[in-house]
TrEMBL record:
It is found in: Cell membrane. It comes from Desulfatirhabdium butyrativorans. It is a multi-pass membrane protein. Its main location: membrane. GO terms for cellular component: plasma membrane. This is Branched-chain amino acid ABC transporter permease. The keyword Transmembrane applies.
Length: 450
């Protein structure tokens, strides 16, 4: 009887165990086909990008997840991205903000320090490569807009790779210099000081065009060099994937692919370093500081040193992404490093789950897609309706009379504010909470329930 039941239920167990893999592969295939057939469809892109969530959510073995993730990130996204370069730009933005959110997660999620000027370290890395990788060194004696057009570049473009490592050191030192005088503060006082530091960096970038023109002021620095793109890379990509893409890929498109892959590599390194730190003595010290600074001091934890370590590590992540931003854009200006950028990155951390690595990445993807695709797409759709003769049924209201002040893209801050309020009420631990944070909140609920 036992052998008969075994033969009956064994195929069922195999079917059940293979369902997650089949669903993930079907999700990936459906998203790929939809994007390939409709390269400009936002809905198709959302179907494809959410396959990462299926890959994370469904229980499968690590080898399958690793293989499927590599196929998505290293094959499907680059090939489909060059068919519609805007998709690749969205993915690059997600990667950049995911790295920034992971860095801020060290400061806010692990150490419990509220930093409202985090974008300042991003600016340090960007302006570091912008100065040395452009003609700005030779522009120092000239007022903005008066320099000759035939000035040489200070360093070759391939020095970009070296400056990715230099930016880690410079940004970490900047974080230590910021933290040394202010980390004895706590809570709101620390937040106000870091906010002021972020604004100081932005104002300096905006005004350091005299008496020596270091930053070119509000006009920004351009052109900023990119590393050399070998011809065989473009030719090899066209030979291998040209028939899928449908046209020859230009070097400019390959630069987008290259910077996307570099951002992806930086994220992998950041995730590895973050996980190692979280499981180390430093990570446990950060947790103790976040929970109770007085108790942490009583247990012999060097408070200032651990806080400085959190600031330095988080700042280094932002610094390297600043170099990537400057190289990919070939132009930077102070407007890219406003206070609202810091708030946006903080919103990603809170939305995804403070202290959670996958949650923070999901938060960065959600906020970026809402910004660049959903809200912008709705605004473009309303703009098209205004140019048509269509009317709203029942009320007989012409779309042409709809005010431009109602465009969804203008209310992104309002939308994010509402999202954060709802998150704090219904899911304070975030979309994908860390296990420690989940236990803490459930423990509080049990105590209050008692």
């Amino acid at each position: 009887m036992f052998h008969l039941l075994k033969h009956v239920f064994l195929p069922i167990d195999r079917i059940i165990s293979s369902f997650p893999r089949a669903f993930i592969l079907a999700h990936m295939l459906l998203g790929t086909v939809l994007v390939y057939m409709s390269p400009r469809s936002n809905l198709a892109f959302l179907v494809l990008i959410t396959s990462f969530f299926s890959l994370y959510h469904f229980p499968t073995d690590r080898l399958f997840k690793l293989t499927a993730g590599m196929v998505l990130t290293l094959l499907i996204f680059p090939v489909l991205g060059v068919r519609n370069i805007f998709y690749l730009e969205v993915i690059f933005q997600i990667s950049v903000f995911a790295a920034l959110a992971l860095g801020l997660n060290i400061v806010v999620g692990f150490a419990g320090l509220l930093d409202l000027g985090y974008v300042a370290f991003y600016a340090v890395g960007a302006y570091l490569w912008a100065f040395f990788g452009s003609q700005q060194y030779y522009v120092l004696p000239f007022a903005p807009g008066t320099q000759p057009s035939n000035l040489p570049f200070l360093l070759p473009g391939d020095a970009f790779y070296l400056f990715m490592f230099i930016a880690i050191i410079v940004a970490a030192i900047t974080g230590i210099l910021l933290g040394t005088p202010v980390l004895r503060l706590r809570g709101d006082y620390l937040a106000i000081v870091t906010l002021g530091f972020g604004e100081v960096i932005r104002v300096l970038a905006n005004n350091l065009d005299k008496p020596l023109n270091f930053t070119n002021g509000p006009q920004g620095i351009t052109p900023i060099q990119r590393p050399t793109m070998p011809e065989w890379v473009v030719e090899g990509f066209n030979r291998t994937f040209g028939w899928i893409v449908g046209h020859d890929v230009s070097p400019a498109d390959m630069y987008n692919v290259m910077f996307y892959l570099m951002a992806l590599l930086v994220i992998v390194v950041i995730v590895y370093v973050t996980k190692r730190l979280d499981d180390s003595k430093i990570g446990r010290a950060w947790t103790a500081i976040r929970e109770d600074e007085t108790a942490a001091i009583a247990m012999g934890i060097p408070l200032v040193r651990m806080k400085l370590a959190a600031f330095a590590v988080g700042a280094s992540f932002a610094g390297v992404m600043g170099v990537l931003l400057a190289g990919s854009r070939t132009f930077i200006s102070p407007e890219s490093f406003s206070f609202m950028q810091s708030i946006g990155v903080l919103a990603m951390v809170i939305l995804g789950g403070s202290g959670s690595i996958p949650g923070v990445i999901l938060g960065a993807a959600t906020v970026t897609i809402l910004n660049l695709q959903v809200l912008q797409g709705l605004s473009l759709y309303l703009s098209q309706l205004r140019q048509s003769d269509a009317v709203i049924p029942i009320i007989n209201f012409a779309w042409a009379n709809l005010s431009t002040q109602l465009d969804p893209a203008k209310y992104q801050r309002l939308l994010f504010g509402l999202i954060l309020i709802l998150m704090m009420i219904f899911r304070p631990e975030g979309l994908i909470p860390s296990q420690r944070r989940k236990r803490e909140l459930s423990g509080e609920e049990n105590v209050s329930g008692e």
